[in-house]
Specification:
Elements (H helix, E strand, L loop, with lengths): L13 H12 L4 E2 L6 E4 L8 E8 L16 E7 L5 H11 L5 E6 L2 H18 L3 E6 L17 H13 L4 H13 L1 E9 L17 E4 L10 E4 L3 H13 L9 E8 L5 H17 L3 E8 L8 E9 L2 H8 L11
Parallel strand pairs: 3-4, 3-5, 5-6, 10-11
Antiparallel strand pairs: 1-2, 2-4, 7-8, 7-12, 8-9, 10-12
Helix pairs in contact: 2-3, 4-5, 6-7
Length: about 325
Amino acid sequence: MSQAKKIMNDPENLVDETLDGLVAISNGLLAREPGSRVVRSTKIEQGKVGLLVGGGSGHEPMYGAFVGPGLANASVSGDIFAAPAPQHVQEAIEAADAGAGVLIVYGNYAGDVMNFDMGAETAEEDSDIESKTVLVRDDVATDDYEGRRGIGGAFYVVKAAGAACAKGMSLEEAAEVTERVQYNTRTIGVAVRAGILPDTGKRTFELGDDEMEIGLGMHGEVGVERSKMMTADEVAKKMVDMVADDLPYESGDRVAVYINNLGATTQMELLIVYRKVAELLAERGLKVERTDIGAHFTSQDMAGFSLTLLKLTDEIAELIDAPCESVPFTQG
């Protein structure tokens, strides 16, 4: 097997140099203090609830780059696939605060929950900043809803949370509507090749040349099914069934669809998959009102994708379609 290749400098500086690059490419939209794991918007609107997002590095652009008007006031990043430290979470909460409290959104992983909770408690004690948390837990590979992991559906949850805050909702209102969006979001992922960790050069899991895995986590956690390679149409059918049956989504429901590139999948493959997904959703009587395809929540150079369905209401559609500005995603 050939040696893993990554275009980088010292592995010890991976996160810092990534954040430096993010700030540099933002053309003044973002700022960061030297050595800090916190990136903040330079266009924070005072008097409104501030959104904070965060998680481990290695999933770029999620969560760290989704900062700017209509999205987060600040983000905090941990090491590769590791939760941010509590003191960095506290710093990020203080950076995100605009005088009306802070809504915190991140994936439902044990380390993140522990460290974000600790940072939020300290920020309230030291700086009197109230916060509320919404956990992204959209992965249908886990039966227990409360224990589900946060994966590609974070794209819609973060988008809605940012719009709710920008709209001037109270902290309680913003948390409640973001939780409704989260509950209406369902995702499943598939991979045909594992990603390579840049700091170790090792793959996050092993797959045979003729194998694929359905339901794996963003860090290579074991999925629900490992099988021989299937055609694009066969994979799409299996994934649509798993996601659409989970809520469940019913004929007549309005939905947004997100196809998320996990890192190394071609646009050709994603379009071939979506063509079948659209056909299958139409057969179920689901009305697709919005479709997004992109690489917004990656796992390094993992080859595969995730499929997200978001059940829309008028309220949720308005939040998803609201204007926003950030390095990886801008609309309106």
